[in-house]
Write a structure and sequence with these properties.
single chain; mainly alpha; 2 domains; 3 helices; about 10% strand
Length: about 230
């Protein structure tokens, strides 16, 4: 009788141990799934940030290309009264000239939307600047070149307006002070560089006197040029 009781107790202990082990394994599995989910979430957020940051770089490059093209079109006006382009197609083929002149090699897509659905800043029906129609909030909020000082603190990419004149549409005293501060920093040692296309190697074009409305959008020793030898 005593042996049967001992055997019964032993069997109960075995069953309890099995249930405990199963419960512990289940809890451990839940913890593993939770930790893995957090890790994947963090990795996903990091990947999304990297993708958006790369798109922002592309937008800065494309915006600079459009701005330089608009400046080139304006400066190429042979009439006494200078005019801006009526459409982006005017930048691809300037029909005002006796010879073919192209201020822009192609109509770039908006990196943020993937479409050529640009918004336009206009004066008297003429295009003086372009901007993305994306309403997303930019990750980049500071550290821009002097020419892009208006992009600081933008609440959406719609406020990243690439105009021929960076002082256009400055309304508040705060914005004016911001530009003065940025220009002062530039004079004290910083340099303006046209954003480069992703993957391109740029070198300083020392002793090269580019015109102010060159494709590089700069002049003198501050200019940048593409050097195929550095690929």
């Amino acid at each position: 009788m005593a042996q049967l009781m001992l055997s019964g107790k032993k069997a109960m202990r075995v069953q309890l141990n099995r249930k405990f082990n199963k419960g512990f394994t289940y809890i451990g599995l839940l913890l593993f799934i939770a930790i893995t989910g957090i890790g994947l979430s963090v990795a996903g957020m990091s990947w999304q940030y990297q993708v958006r940051a790369e798109k922002e770089k592309q937008l800065l490059f494309v915006g600079a290309e459009f701005r330089n093209a608009i400046n080139s079109y304006y400066s190429s006006t042979t009439d006494t009264v200078k005019v801006y382009p009526a459409s982006l197609d005017d930048l691809l083929l300037d029909k005002r000239m006796p010879t073919i002149k192209r201020h822009l090699r192609k109509i770039y897509l908006d990196p943020m939307t993937g479409k050529a659905d640009w918004g336009f800043e206009t004066k008297q029906g003429r295009i003086v600047g372009i901007y993305s129609r994306s309403s997303l909030v930019p990750y980049k909020q500071k550290g821009f070149n002097v020419v892009d000082v208006k992009l600081v603190g933008a609440k959406s990419y719609r406020e990243w307006i690439f105009t021929s004149d960076p002082t256009d549409n400055i309304k508040s005293a705060e914005e004016v002070a911001k530009i003065k501060q940025t220009v002062a920093e530039f004079v004290n040692g910083s340099s303006v560089k046209t954003p480069s296309a992703p993957g391109q190697n740029l070198v300083n074009a020392d002793n090269k006197n580019f015109p102010i409305n060159s494709p590089n959008g700069c002049k003198g020793g501050d200019c940048l040029r593409y050097d195929p030898k550095h690929q």
